[in-house]
Design a protein that fits this description.
This protein is an alpha/beta fold and 451 residues long. Strand 3 and strand 4 (277-283) form a beta hairpin. Strands 1, 2, 3, 4, 5, 6, 7, 8 and 9 form a nine-stranded mixed sheet that branches. 44% of the residues lie in helices and 11% in strands. It folds into three domains: 2-100, no CATH class; 123-181; 203-241 and 252-441, Ribonuclease H-like superfamily/Ribonuclease H (Nucleotidyltransferase, domain 5, 2-Layer Sandwich), CATH 3.30.420. The chain contains 15 helices and nine strands.
Length: 451
């Protein structure tokens, strides 16, 4: 094209008598103008890229289109193609932005697309999609033997795969969005089913509360007792997490088989309801009634009596099972021995069956101990004792813990005549209301019974 223009210029110059030197001058000026235009174009191109890189993330779709359209209009008829190639967008996007500059009715602020714009949602293309998803996640379908996910985890991946097998084109992202819009969320099991409730459950709670109030009004000591979950001693995984350098977790055993040398730790707790103090005896043998009462006795000698110097009565609230079971005969005989040694009148009120989680010690003491040693292997009985003793709360809870290395054999049987003798002598007095749950052990059987 340039050669043709040169030949034409030479012919014209020969006819008019112009010299070839002037023709070369014209060529030079044309090339200079073209080079200037090219440099200007490259500069503008680089400026667009810089602006797009710096401002693009802060622009909405409509703002980006308007900016590109304004640049294209400034370049003239070829501006749409030039801007589209320079920035790397579709020419239609630039063309729409140029047209929107003259839009007499622009969309509201914050809206980038006209109503109905953008890709339709999956449920719009597939009206049966939502109903099919609800059938898969509906709790009622768990008992349906024909449900595709009867025996599998209902994760978004599994749900999406099941929907695709049923002919619905859907991704995990869409399944997650639909579940959220339908009001579903990831939830763990909730321990709320307490089994069959005793008809006098509420009445027993009211009676227990009355006994607590009456004993506290008299200045008596009131405690809540229970055995915490037994813990394996050694390098075992403990629930929870602690701060460690990245990639350096505490290494523990793969399998949770009890160490025959270290054995287990049996924390038995005593919570003084009035003093906001706890006492935990960590046993190393067996969780028996003798161990439970021995822990209560040590608490009374070390803490209870100094805290309640004028108390002549002790009220114990406990659940109905374990080492302090309301059916346990050894529990009652050991308490009778404790009453005789201390001179206390000991009253026991058990929580009704199926309500052990309502025991105050669970929430006032044991939960804080579990949080204090979370994510930390309990490598020895000493570590357990020290960790329990370091448990505190914002409300001022203080806990004392000590190791009990005594032996507490199992299988001790208390004959009927021994229990009958306690009742005959007036040492064991069952209350009128549910005497199996509520009873008093008196150090002096001739003491009048107020129950």
């Amino acid at each position: 094209m340039l050669a043709e223009w040169l030949r034409t210029s030479e012919l014209e110059d020969s006819t008019v008598g112009r010299t070839p030197v002037r023709t070369r001058d014209e060529i030079t000026s044309v090339l200079a103008a073209g080079l200037y235009g090219f440099v200007l174009w490259r500069w503008r191109w680089s400026r667009w890229l810089v602006v797009l890189r710096r401002c693009g993330p802060h622009l909405t779709e409509r703002q980006r289109r308007l900016w590109l359209g304004a640049e294209a209009r400034e370049l003239g008829s070829a501006g749409v193609v030039l801007v589209a190639r320079a920035v790397g967008v579709a020419a239609e996007t630039v063309r729409r932005g140029r047209e929107e500059l003259d839009d007499p009715a622009p969309p509201p602020v914050g809206v980038s697309r006209r109503a109905g714009g953008g890709r339709k949602r999956a449920e719009a293309h597939d009206p049966e999609l939502v109903a099919a998803l609800e059938r898969l996640v509906d709790p009622e379908s768990r008992g349906d033997p024909m449900s595709p996910l009867r025996w599998t985890c209902k994760s978004t991946r599994a749900l999406a795969a099941a929907l695709r097998e049923a002919g619905h084109q859907v991704s995990e992202f869409v399944v997650r969005r639909l579940l959220t819009e339908l009001g579903y969320s990831l939830q763990a099991n909730a321990k709320t089913a307490e089994g069959r409730q005793h008809p006098d459950r509420d009445a027993q709670f009211r009676y227990l509360n009355e006994q607590v109030s009456a004993h506290q009004a008299e200045g008596a000591a009131v405690i809540s007792v229970d055995t915490k979950k037994k813990e394996f001693v050694g390098e075992y995984k403990n629930g929870g997490r602690e701060w460690h350098p990245r990639g350096q977790p505490t290494e523990v055993n793969v399998y949770d088989f009890v160490d025959e040398e270290l054995g287990k730790a049996i924390p038995y707790g005593v919570d003084d309801l009035a003093a906001n103090t706890g006492w935990v005896g960590v046993g190393a043998d067996h969780d028996t009634a003798a161990f439970a009462v021995a822990t209560i006795g040590r608490w009374w000698d070390a803490v209870g009596q100094p805290t309640h110097p004028r108390a002549t009565k002790l009220l114990i609230t406990a659940d109905g099972g374990g080492s302090n079971s309301y059916r346990g005969r050894l529990w009652k005989t050991e308490l009778a021995a404790l009453a005789a040694r201390t001179g206390l009148q000991i009253t026991v009120c058990h929580l009704p069956p199926g309500t052990s989680k309502w025991n105050k010690i669970e929430h006032r003491l044991f939960s804080h101990i579990s949080m204090n040693w979370r994510g930390r292997p309990l490598t020895s009985h000493e570590v357990i004792v020290e960790t329990i003793g370091a448990t505190t709360t914002r409300t001022g809870l203080s806990v004392h813990a000590e190791l009990d290395q005594a032996t507490y054999p199992t299988g001790i049987k208390i004959p009927d005549k021994q229990i009958k003798a306690l009742q005959t002598t007036g040492t064991l007095v069952r209350h009128t209301f549910h005497g199996e749950w509520n009873y008093t052990l008196r150090a002096h059987p001739d003491t009048p019974d107020s129950n």
